[in-house]
Amino acid sequence: MKRFASVLLACASFFVGSANAQSVSISSGTLQGTTAGDVTSFKGIPYAAAPLGVNRWRAPQPVLAWRGVRDASRFGADCAQVAVPIPGMDTSATQKSEDCLFVNVWRPANAVRGAQLPVMVWIYGGAFLFGSGSLPSYSGEQFAKQGVILVTLNYRLGRFGFFAFPALSKEHPDEPKGNYAYMDQIAALKWVKNNIAAFGGDSGNVTIFGESAGGVSVHTLLTSPLSRGQFQKAIIESGGGRDGILTGRPIRADNADRNYPVSAETIGVNFARSHGIAGVDAAALARLRALPLNEILDGGQVTAGPGGPPIYSGPILDGRLVAETAESAYKAGRQMRVPLMIGSNSAEVNSGFLRARSKEELFAEFGKGKDQAIAAYDPEGTTDFATLVTMATTDRVWAEPARFTANAVVAKGAPAYVYRFSYVADSMRERLPGGAPHASEIEFVFDTVGGRYGTALTAKDQAVARMMNTYWANFAKTGDPNRSGLPNWPRHNSNTNGLLDFQPDGSAVGGPDPRKARLDATEQAGGKAIPH
After folding, report:
1. Is the dihedral of CA 344, 346, 349, 350 positive or negative?
2. How many Cβ atoms are within 10 Å of 331's Cβ, its own excluded?
3. Where in the sequence numbering do the catalytic residues fall?
């Protein structure tokens, strides 16, 4: 009889355990996730209080605990934004709100507390104006199948994410000001550190990674004194690294920066005036906080009418969270000492950054590197101008800054791995003959190409995605993307400029950078990366 009772008790324990397999208790309460196959996800988890009312333009405040079990089967609202219909990044159909500070977690279904699985935290791009952690392209399912816990987050965007005003600078003197988007990212990383063990993750093995503005964010987190100790590895995809690429304007000093001569506070005052709000005191700030969401969005306008004064600042040199630009920190060796993967795509963009209208004007922009540039880019004089603009822009804004960053990381004694993504999905080759454009690597990194290309997906596309997802997961696990069965990815050093090229034919080839001469000429160019 005693043995029969023991069997019943064991069975009861099994069924209770199975019923609770999707539940996780964290610092703010209990979550109920969903399991599909061998992956469990938890979505719409608040990591900070809603930044509403007096919390608009304030550092993230502690999340309020909830009673009972919170349904974590659905994403929370995206942060307020003007949606942009870009394939893979379109949020036009999603709910948007200022109440948007949520994280999402994917883990292996069999993960338990104490599993000590590596963790990756994704920071989306979108020029700091649009984006979401809930986009299908960013699903963590394939990373979870690789034994990695994947976290995505939302952070405030546009004028909600970056805003300065004299009265704001005076209130809550113990809190940083201006860079609310970056404050959100750091708050999310602190949430990960405090809670990820409950999901089976290792809070001491966290890799942050981001693309475009998300890559710029990773630069900021690598160099900010306020993010120290929150992660152990970093990956930057098409995120620049030199001054002028969304790197931050002075918070209150006008004409102090050649890239950003108008200060963030001046821009904040301009915005207030554009909405009929005079003065710079607490009463003016209260009126700004009372503006409806759509008036803060202002249709995505960055100037008060065509040719008007600027009314949106972007990232800010606030002196605390962003104490200096990433380039300044790298040159002085003040960044965190962590392993880095960094790279860019082969044909990022074909316009928007360089003012040149002819070959002569383009090569003149290289300054003392002009002769080197001609020899590297157009030795026979036969390359058409449009192709040259794409090549030069890609190198100036992304590829050379990536090499510069890798050099700085290696100089501080940490390993760096550089890549170039040159692959174009088979169905897109006729439309993209020049190479892989900005952001086109994302679905390959996440291995979500099926959702992006649908029935046009080929076996080669899928193989490239699987390979890239594996490299990224390997790096998160060990700090080295290599493992048996994959082409060797050489460590970067400043002499050989080794990298891994995901080539147009779907192969991956490691070795010295064949574009080194182009990047050497670009390095000599100096000057502003983006005209203002």
Report:
1. positive
2. 14
3. 212, 348, 438
- Which residue has tokens 């822009």? 393
CATH for 339-525 is 3.40.50.1820
Q: Where does 133-198 have alpha helices with state H?
A: 141-145, 158-161, 166-170, 180-195
The dihedral sign for the CA sequence 313, 318, 321, 327: positive
Cβ-contact 460, 506 below 8 angstroms = yes
Gap between the Cα atoms of 331 and 235, Å rounded:
19
For residue 286, give the nearest of 275, 274, 277 by alpha carbon: 277
Please classify residue 18 by burial: count the beta carbons closer than 10 Å to its beta carbon, then call 0-12 exposed, 13-18 middle and 19+ buried. exposed
**pTM of the predicted structure, to 2 decimals:** 0.94
The answer on pLDDT for 168 being more than 70 is: yes
Closest CA to 314 of 180, 209, 417: 180
- Reading the block at residue 33, the tokens are 């996730």
Q: Cβ distance 368 to 378 under 8 Å?
A: no
Section 31-43 average pLDDT: 96
CB-count burial class (<10 Å; 0-12, 13-18, 19+) for 33: buried
190-216 confidence digits (pLDDT tens): 999 999 999 999 999 999 999 999 999
Determine the Cα–Cα distance for residues 214 and 401; give it in Å rounded to an integer.
Answer: 15
d(CA 64, CA 256): 41
Q: Can you tell me which residue has the tokens 């202002």?
A: 298
Distance CA(22)–CA(24), nearest Å, equals 7
Rg (CA), the chain: 24
Q: What is the DSSP letter of 196?
A: G
Whose structure tokens read 């979108």?
A: 126
Distance separating alpha carbons of residues 175 and 450, to the nearest angstrom: 44
Domain residue ranges in the chain? 250-315, 339-525
- Encoded tokens for 186: 């750091």
Alpha-carbon span 30 to 42, nearest angstrom: 11
Round to the nearest angstrom and report the end-to-end CA distance of the chain.
84
pLDDT category at 84 given cuts 50, 70, 90 is confident
The position carrying tokens 């058409």 is 384
Q: What is the DSSP code (8-state) at residue 429? A: T
Distance, CA of 310 to CA of 182 (rounded, Å): 21
* pLDDT(388) > 70: yes
Residues 459-503 have pLDDT tens digits of 999 999 999 999 999 999 999 999 999 999 999 999 989 999 999
Helix (H, G, I), strand (E, B) or coil at 342: strand
Q: What pLDDT score does 14 carry?
A: 33
Beta bridge partners of 70: 31
